[in-house]
């Protein structure tokens, strides 16, 4: 199973005057201010390390600071994953970690 999730990265808290009887308004950011996490796992519980797509023009190592071993990433102008970057994810990340690669059982 493959899943892609957008994470909003630029949150701006609204001005809130606290009152016991009120609820806090939702805090959101612009649609263009997001990063994407590509994750993959199967029904047996095997997982492939995440692959991040950050908004930016140049990949910087500090974007992946604190990552789990094997996790990797790239940048796009929007932080969204699209066809060219998904193909790169499959070729350069997914195939490196997928289990059971065998020429008799192609993936």
Automatic annotation (TrEMBL):
<protein>
    <submittedName>
        <fullName>Uncharacterized protein</fullName>
    </submittedName>
</protein>
